[in-house]
Amino acid sequence: MSADDSNPLTRARVATRLPAQDLDRGRRFYSAQLGLEPVDERPGGLLYRCGGVDFVLFQSTGASPGTFTQMAWEVDDIEAVVAELGRRGVVFEEVDVPGFRTRDGIAEVDGNYPSKGARGERGAWFRDSEGNLLGIGELVV
User: Fold this and answer.
1) What is the pLDDT of residues 85-132, one digit of tens each?
2) Which of 5, 29, 32, 133 has a CB 3.0–4.6 Å from the CB of 129, allowing a cystine?
3) Is residue 3 part of a domain?
4) What is the pLDDT of residue 41?
5) Domain count for the chain
6) CATH number of the domain bearing residue 134
7) 85-93: long-range pairs with CB below 8 Å, 24+
8) CA–CA separation, 78 and 136 (whole Å)
9) Which residues of 117-130 are buried (b: 16+ CB within 10 A; e: fewer)?
10) Is residue 14 part of a domain?
């Protein structure tokens, strides 16, 4: 299946927006725990850039349900990233459900992302200060 070049969304950049009930608390978390600083800020929002891709933490009266991954980073060495973030105080989710279990915060996810040429992915999840569920993934090729 090929993308339809006449569809303007196939050429558009995807932009992630994460809600924050307390933007100052969110800024402190992203700085201290993730080592990220905004590249721009406006009243009610902070713009971050990772790997040439932007995401926004924005002031919101609504809260994230935190029941699904809202944003994730793809990394080359998940153990190193999980260890570094753990040293910074990030607490990783432990999951134990049929067919899916984390060990030391990392899960093996067989068959995930076949369109990226991988046979699976290793993943880890944590919540930011605002309850957003964020992920770290390493493709298994």
Assistant:
1) 999 999 999 988 777 789 999 998 877 666 677 788 899 999 999 999
2) 29
3) no
4) 96
5) 1
6) 3.10.180.10
7) 85/33, 85/34, 85/126, 85/136, 88/32, 88/33, 88/34, 88/35, 89/32, 89/33, 90/33, 90/34, 90/126, 91/126, 91/127, 92/124, 92/125, 92/126, 93/124, 93/125, 93/126, 93/127, 93/133
8) 7
9) ebebbbbbbbbbbb
10) yes
Whether 2 is in a domain gets the answer no
Question: Within a 10 A sphere around the Cβ of 18, how many other Cβ atoms?
Answer: 21
pLDDT digits (tens, 9 = 90+) for 50-66: 999 999 999 999 888 88
- Record the pTM: 0.89
Run of H or E including 128? none
Does residue 35 lie in a domain region?
yes
Domain that holds residue 114: 8-140
